[in-house]
Write a structure and sequence with these properties.
Helix content: 25-40%
Shape: globular
Oligomer: single chain
Radius of gyration: 24 Å
Structural class: alpha/beta
Strand content: 25-35%
Number of strands: 21
Number of helices: 10
């Protein structure tokens, strides 16, 4: 008995040490609470985030005065980002590196974009391979926090015709080549989520079929296809029209053109650029009335020129690209636009202004719809179990002001006072 009594303190200390070691080895629980006005209904909400996921949503909450002014929504998802802030993913000579991609990601976070598809436009085979490899390294970098969901290959399998080709270089436009595309696909870690193609060019329909069988979302864009070809492309798996109303000739037949069949085909969603330059208000209103919030995606088509000083720059062929002081990017050689200098947050406010749609529907088009289209089922909504990709913002005079961006539960941007 005396022996056991003497040993009890030692046993107690040993057990205490074991318990401390167990607690130290257990993963820490990162928890935060976010409060504001819910984007869906304009009512108060309190969201509990634990270890990067939405754990609880409380609607019975009293907000303080500051929180009553702040909206909460899922982070924006942009399916067409060519670059930003001097960083280009394929345009021009594109001296891309992993650090540049990560810096571009941070700039997008400041605009409320928590997920995006780096977009590679028409260029040489070698450059596309090189940049896909660099982008894939950036995607795997832990500091990107999963914001790079995959890639959008916009070209090189597009129409060579002026106007429909847009600002893509004629020197690198080519017919679909499945072996070439599979090189891109493998280099990209099989993360090419969508490809824009002109369905009327030789080999395009078979290419669309093969992409669809792989689960790649086929988009129709930079094309001058007939109604019959567009309908056939949809039958073979095409799901969306890329920046509808743009990448067309400045003069088209008022009856026979690629616009009407894409609008009238219920099997096609549309993406539209709502930067105030690419489409007139009445065009956006018509597109929205036809497709509705369910089948519309707001995209930016933002380029490396965003955030740069207004002036004249050179494209891949040495031709002028003009960036105006009001943010318009113009390609004089083709008398058309050359991408956008605005991020998708501007599009959210602009579509609300010109269509009268609700904030809820605008966020649906800028987050929920792209998440569903590309199979990103862990994001795009504020629901328990989803990734905590969340933005806090105000909106005045149809302009979003991002106050805080949370990616996978981590605060990656917070506006200064």
């Amino acid at each position: 008995m005396k022996f056991l009594f003497c040993c009890y303190p030692i046993l107690r200390i040993t057990l205490l040490i074991i318990m401390i070691l167990i607690l130290i080895s257990m993963p820490s629980i990162a928890q935060q609470k976010i409060e504001g006005i819910f984007y869906l209904d304009g009512q108060p909400v309190s969201i509990t985030v634990i270890d990067g996921k939405i754990d609880q949503i409380d609607r019975n909450v009293e907000l303080n005065e500051d929180s009553r002014k702040v909206f909460i929504a899922p982070g924006l998802i942009d399916n067409q980002v060519n670059g930003i802030n001097g960083v280009s993913f394929s345009f021009g000579q594109s001296e891309l590196n992993v650090q540049g991609v990560l810096e571009a990601t941070k700039v997008l976070w400041q605009r409320g974009v928590t997920t995006y598809l780096p977009t590679l436009t028409t260029n040489s085979h070698e450059l596309l391979l090189k940049n896909l490899s660099i982008l894939e390294s950036a995607r795997k970098d832990e500091s990107s926090l999963g914001s790079i969901a995959g890639y959008h290959l916009e070209g090189p399998y597009i129409s060579p015709a002026d106007g429909y080709r847009g600002a893509h270089s004629i020197n690198f436009v080519r017919k679909p080549d499945w072996n070439e595309f599979m090189e891109y696909y493998r280099t990209a870690g099989k993360r090419i989520l969508t490809v824009t193609v002109a369905p009327e060019i030789e080999g395009a329909i078979e290419f669309i079929k093969k992409c669809s069988e792989l689960g790649i979302v086929v988009a129709l864009g930079h094309h001058n296809a007939t109604t019959g070809i567009i309908n056939r492309a949809v039958e073979y798996g095409a799901k969306i029209s890329t920046h509808l109303g743009n990448a067309m000739s400045n003069t088209i037949n008022r009856h026979v053109n690629p616009l009407w069949p894409q609008l009238s085909n219920d099997g096609l969603m549309i993406s539209i650029i709502c930067d105030g330059f690419h489409l007139l208000p009445e065009q956006i209103r018509v597109f929205y009335k036809v497709k509705g919030a369910e089948r519309t995606i707001i995209t930016s088509d933002v380029t490396m020129y965003a955030n740069l000083t207004p002036g004249v720059y050179k494209n891949i062929d040495g031709e002028d690209i003009e960036l105006s002081s009001d943010g318009r990017i113009f390609y004089p050689a083709q008398n058309n636009l050359a991408g956008s200098a605005s991020t998708i947050d501007k599009g959210v406010g602009h579509i609300m202004k010109v269509t009268g749609c609700s904030l809820s529907d605008a966020i649906k088009m800028a987050s929920t719809n792209p998440a569903q289209l590309y199979g990103l089922n862990d994001r795009g909504k504020i629901e328990t179990g989803k990734r905590a990709d969340i933005i806090l913002f105000t909106i005045e005079d149809y302009r979003m002001k991002i106050l805080k961006t949370i990616v996978n539960g981590k605060v990656v941007y917070e506006a200064s006072e």
